[in-house]
Give the backbone structure.
Amino acid sequence: MTSLDELCINTIRGLSIDAVEAAKSGHPGLPLGVAPMAHVLWTRHLRHNPGDPKWPERDRFILSAGHGSMLLYSLLHLTGYDLSLDEIKRFRQFESKTPGHPENFMTPGVEVATGPLGQGCGMSVGMAIAERFLAATFNKPGHEIIDHFTYVICSDGDLMEGVAHEAASLAGHQKLGKLIWLYDDNGITIDGSTALAFTEDVGSRFQALGWHVQRIDGMNLDAVDLALSEAKSALDQPSLIIARTVIGFGSPNKGGTSKSHGAALGPDESRLTKENLGIPLEPPFYIADDVLREFRKAVDRGEQWQHDWQDELDAYAMAYPEAARNLKNSWIWNWEADFPSFGPDEKLATRVASGKVINAIEAQVPTLIGGSADLAESNNTHIKESPDMQATTPAGRNINFGVREHAMAAACNGITLHGGCRGFGASFLIFADYCRPALRLAALQQCPSIFVFTHDSIGLGEDGPTHQPIEHLISLRAIPNFNLMRPADGNETAACWKIALESQNTPSVLALTRQALPTISPAMNGGDHPASKGAYVLSDPPLDTQHSALAAVLIATGSEVHLCLDAQALLAKEGIAARVVSMPSWFLFEQQPASYREEVLSKGVPTLSVEAGGTLGWSRYAQAHVGIDHFGSSAPGDVLFKAFGFTAENIAAAARILLGQR
């Protein structure tokens, strides 16, 4: 280690100490221990351009152990990203660019939002998948324009989480050789020693999963450098570098203990730590001129790397103009697709309609990639004209995620956030529970991943209440910036796919049926459909009741909409004028002007909601409800619909009760 290396490393440590101390909260232990290997990675291996954080060919860096965020913020500031020292001083303060855990939409240079342990690991697998797919799709002989690595710094806590294990298993199977995890093996968790709960042989586990594993002294710069070089050459396997470190290194009384993990060191211990490391006590947030010059070399290096890459890209465009256009379109996500329409005589499950949509548009959206958690046949997500994605067929667009719902959802986020691709994942709606942390994080990150959840109600039938979602629709609607869409037929399904693909910063869920449904909504007209507004008037009262004032509004989603049309006809025979509103998306409806919402729901008219799920939340739109607030049962779907009141007759009866008629 040179004296300048030591000064650079201690500058990272000093900034971290001071920022956490100023905030009176934070996690100083990780930055103090991990600074040496982070310094080596960022100055000797990581290809990035601080002047353009979104340069497509940059290496990706993820701090999965997001609680150690000051490590990342220090590196971003020192290497020249648009993150000022004033923002470092505002660590963890309201609307600063340095929140407690990294947030990709807040801070230039932060690739993904991390903090929930294991999520960064899961997303890194998606990023590595995206890099390999784009390389296999667009690279040509002599023109390797996509060729970069994904690096992760992860912790004991990350590797304890199930999502990280799922993701590591998938990465090993896929042989993602450009994925490198640096494991901060400091032996300490919040509660104390990892020996309290984590005594497995991590290296052997990862070797069994198909990873290239190295064990090093993470405080030794040469060892870190050599390990990274070796990992970069092991292109037939993902790499895990188990780096033994000391949490809170340099702190005389708290180093090596859990006391340095999740709280400020305190004024006295901060002073002692700085003295121990040779960091000037004053001024706080000290950065020596020669240290800043050394780190800021990243600006010129990055600019040159990007310039050279642009030259390569220009040559590529001359040699392969069509491929270059497609690559550019993939990066700005500029595709136009012809979505199919479904006629009035077609009766099909919306999961089947979704499969038809995917295969109708796949050639026009060539970097849409994804798959299912071992349910592709049931979810109808298989792209027929493409092979499966395997290590030997990396350009395949069908990803076999296996029974790993959580890793699937996290990887889809990584695929999408990488850029150039849109990731989608599929399972049964009931198993959204297994995906939920990644779904929530997609919404928080403004990441427009697409999730296809089929078997969306008791209509799935005989598999019974363990597989019949009840509370899932409302629980997913509760996530901010999250667009759950439950289409009523094939045409609405096509419209929902279009909405999902055009979304720029909101993830989408398509909740789809197992059972066949009649086509009841209009065909897409020039790509437009009223479902894009979230809710619309599907049917006003028949002509013979129009002389009567509108008496009721029946509002429904998915498979219950056609039942409301039948109930409307029954009510019309009694002279009761009822409107049917299809509402595939609460999220989109709430974005419409108040005037439109009041027009659709006919403000002041009694309203009945109908949905084969929990009724919680529907009171915002309706005064009475036909729903199911208990678990289902094992029987054919049509039997259950009748038994639990999802019939035209019962809907009409509920409407009459709402109107005060018996």
